[in-house]
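Lab notebook, bench 4. The sequencing result for the construct came back, and we need a structural model before the next group meeting so we can plan mutations. Quick request posted to the team channel:

Model the 3D structure of this chain.
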Amino acid sequence: ATDITTDTPTNNFCTMNPLDSYITTATEGNLQIAQSSGSYQIITSTISVPKNGKWYCEVEMDTVDSGADDHMYMGIINRDLQIESASYDAHNNTIQWHHTASDSSNGRFVDEGTTSYNNSAIRLSSGDIVMIAVDSDNDKLWFGKAGTWYDDDGSTDGDPAGNSNETAGDIYYSKSEWTFFCGGGGGEFVWKWNFGNPP
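Done. Here's the predicted structure in token form:
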């Protein structure tokens, strides 16, 4: 009774993909992702972000290890990027919410290798629910937390419904395909993804 899914061949939901991953462990229908301490790790989603329409998902941070050298990332990644620790750690070809415990600011938005905002206001803690909204028609993405949406400068005036003040724009200008991802390095983390059929 506690393990019921609405995911069927005719009502199909996205999950994370253990066949396109590096070291991470997937459980609960491939929606709960655990990262052990050690080298950089990553996993991507089974379904790419559609090229049209408006899309939403969320992920709960169930465990956040706050050791000095720990890094955690989530967001969207170019599907053409090779899934390995070296290229992943470069931060290029991703739009991500980046949590690093070694940085006193402890939270940042990174758009294809460029940090757009870096401040403790967007640090992540265990139990936080991160919201991700993608407007594929207008090539925009928003990150949010606990009901609050962020602009690219950390302002809390992000508005996916009004198509304004996005966290990142022009997300398809040079990319063939995006997919959701999470990962990190150093510490132990657990993500619980909800694409409409939560774990």
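The longest strand covers residues 38-48.
Will bring this to the meeting.
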